[in-house]
User: What shape does this take?
Amino acid sequence: MGLSLPNRPWTDELSSSLAMIGFNIILIEFWLSGRVKLLSKILGIDWVLQVHQLFARTALVFLLVHPFMYTLPSQPVWMMGASHQNFLGLTLASGLTGMLSLFALICLVGLAITRKSSEISYEAWRLSHVVLALIIATVGFFHTIDAGRYAQELWVKAYWQLMLGLALLSVVWTYVVKPLIQNKNAYEVMSIKQVSMGIWELVLKHPAANQMNYQAGQFAWLKIGSSSPMPENPFSIASCASKNSSDISFLIKDVGDFTHQISQLQAGHKMFVDGPYGNFGVEAFSNDQDQLVMIAGGVGVAPMISILRQIERDQDTSLMNKKILLIYGNRVTEQAINLKDMVRLESFKHLEVIQLVSEPTSDWQGLTGVLDTTMLERMLSAHQINSKTAQFMICGPAEMIDSVETSLDQFGAPLANIASEKFQYDFGKKNPKNRRSVISAILGSAALLSAAIYATLH
Ligand SMILES: Cc1cc2nc3c(=O)[nH]c(=O)nc-3n(C[C@H](O)[C@H](O)[C@H](O)COP(=O)(O)OP(=O)(O)OC[C@H]3O[C@@H](n4cnc5c(N)ncnc54)[C@H](O)[C@@H]3O)c2cc1C
Assistant: This one.
């Protein structure tokens, strides 16, 4: 807006604005990939990844429409005629780089949206995501610098160079520098033992007693044997930090290649830990609500164990005396971890544990069924939980979290009082929290579009 360049049609101006906003989003996306500890600690991993996933769509739309809005001498671009006009009067290199980066962006967003339903392995998908993102950033940068009207200004060019530099730095940091640092900071398997059907407790120690400084409820990325960037998988920390020990433990369910390898580990094996990430758990340490309801599905009980361990470690009487209800659901009885082996449950004054199994054995004495709306309502009212004021924490499979969040919304629980940690990274199904995220992203995108229009008209 500050530059006084010769006038041109408003559609050309709007097109440039959309392209600049779109490319800015792309470069900022590198920092919203969930690998910046500070961001994930302040905002939570779900928030960061939802912004990452939703605004990628905004960038795609802005960048896809922009070439079609330019005008050619005497005709709109979509009526392209003679071959020399097919690159919008750009140099061949500018035209090709624009098309290549747009094509890469379409592939990247398409692969991300369809990842779960496609056959592609997580590792192959993640590699393709990084490679495509690098292509979009570097080739898109060339296109911006060469074709962009405003990028001809020295300081605008410097701005794009800085943004690209920062984006590339985030990749170099995650995939080169961090693995090198980790290589000097290997952890060692202290013990690995089966604690229920398919679930293993992995205890690691740092030989230098140099323990990671984490809060209960956070998670870390684990690598086996080598610190090279992949494969690495995220797991909630089940222990709580202690001054006297560098042990850190995880509860890991054997579901695939990586987790199966973990179950085969022996004491002394080398492992690499990158963390802590996320902020699930902070709610448990606040006294704003006088009732805390923890709802865990399967191995989703891991962060809850960590939180209870930390409350007990701190011996904070207001938290120890708080009414805590832990609802712990499993498919079969054998999958349930014996919580008494993990936490001294008796040290809590008002802690109640409800175990729920959907396919019980004949000798099962506890509750049977799934955690649907009726079951949840029954449990909350039986334990005098006020859903409008209690703090809820949910962790486990995405389907369970979606269903519990929907039920709690129906009971009038404010969304701000529901914290959840999904054990998967895909943008989940429709539930009240996701709806709110989508509406926020649409409003955010509308604000960006308005900014583009405002800049065009002034
Ligand atoms: C924040 C968070 C905390 C988690 N905490 C725990 C925990 O405490 N205990 C536990 O047992 N599980 C936890 N998980 C789930 C765990 O990360 C996956 O079960 C595990 O990575 C599966 O890997 P696999 O190769 O064995 O299985 P696969 O069959 O290869 O993968 C199964 C699915 O797991 C996901 N996945 C696989 N690899 C990765 C990866 N590198 N990064 C992210 N997702 C991946 C993908 O959605 C994939 O489709 C957590 C996940 C997240 C996101």
